[in-house]
Amino acid sequence: MLEKISPNAANYMRGGTRVYVKRTADAFYQNLGNIVSATLARNEDLQEHISGYTGSKAIDRKRQEVKSIDYTIQTDENTIESVRAWLLGDAATLPTQAATVGNCDNIVELCIGLTLYSDVVIGRWYDMRIDEATAVHWKMFDDAFPIVIANMTEGTNFKVDYIAGRITFLTAPAQNEVIGANASGKLTAVTSGMANKFNQFSVLSIDVSAEGVYVFEDADIRDFWTVPKAQLLPSGDGSISIENDRVIEFTLSQLKHTTLDWGTYERHDVGA
User: Does residue 153 belong to any structural domain of this protein?
Assistant: First the structure.
């Protein structure tokens, strides 16, 4: 339940933050990502007044004027929308679902670092030139007679690491391996066709509104806050680590709205 009086250990809570942003031209809010850390700072002017009536140098009044409220937010588990915002990208295209097929007339065309298929080292992994493959088919053709003379089996003749985008051969892909000196291997890599694309560095500023939720681990309490006017500013350096997800940083600079002022802050008892 809501506690309004301290000292009270029930008021000692910890938790996390969720932040949702919406560009002025968008219809829906987007989750900014998993918030790794968030800090808040007020950008303000402090004016001090000294009365000249008595000759005293004592300050008799202070005036504090808030210019903006800046949230520094670090996120991981980033979506295409958060990466788009951090790179100041324009509108992203919608994903397409149709599968695409990339054909390579021989092993050399598919594998980066190979100049002759006779140079293949059994068991060595080779990066593939076709990214995002979901299936690879290897067939042996007779070039003199354009017919399939053998189908190679994944797991027996070759293996594919689809996550890393690489292939290894378990049997030697010799030119005359099956029938005649004209036999060659043709590989077909099938990709899913999923693509979200945008041009980066084409947006000068990102004007947004935002909503946030503080979720407390050990209490049925949620703090909700709204930001009717703000700018989302990429800040800091993005980091990629083999041990951790990519972390990117934003500054959400809250500005004063002409009619909605600075927004709202509410505490809800969700268990009542």
Answer: yes
In a domain, 35, yes or no: yes
Can you spell out the DSSP letters for 186-211?
A: EEEEEE--------TT--S-EEEEEE
Question: Of the candidates 191, 225, 258, which is a domain's last residue?
Answer: 191
Q: Is 77 left (phi over 0), alpha (psi -120 to 50) or beta?
A: left
Q: Among 162, 76, 97, 103, which Cα is nearest to 127's?
A: 162
Asked if pLDDT for residue 201 goes beyond 60, the answer is yes
Which band of pLDDT confidence, cut at 50, 70 and 90, is reported for residue 179?
A: very low
| 80 and 104 assigned to the same domain | no
- Closest listed residue to residue 101, CA positions, set 61, 135, 60: 135
Is there a single domain that holds both residue 169 and residue 205? Answer: no
Q: Which helix (H) or strand (E) holds 20?
A: strand 15-23
Strand partners, 23: 208
End residue of a domain, out of 191, 225, 247: 191
Q: Tell me the residue range of the domain where 144 lies.
A: 100-191
Query: Among candidates 224, 215, 140, which has minimal Cα distance to 184?
Result: 140
Q: How far apart are CA 72 and CA 150, in angstroms?
A: 59
| pTM (global) more than 0.70 | no
Phi and psi at 161, nearest 5°, equal -100, 95
Q: Do 84 and 25 belong to one domain?
A: yes
Q: What is the pLDDT of residues 108-149, one digit of tens each?
A: 777 888 887 778 889 999 888 877 777 888 777 666 555 666
CA distance linking residue 228 with residue 204, whole number of Å: 20
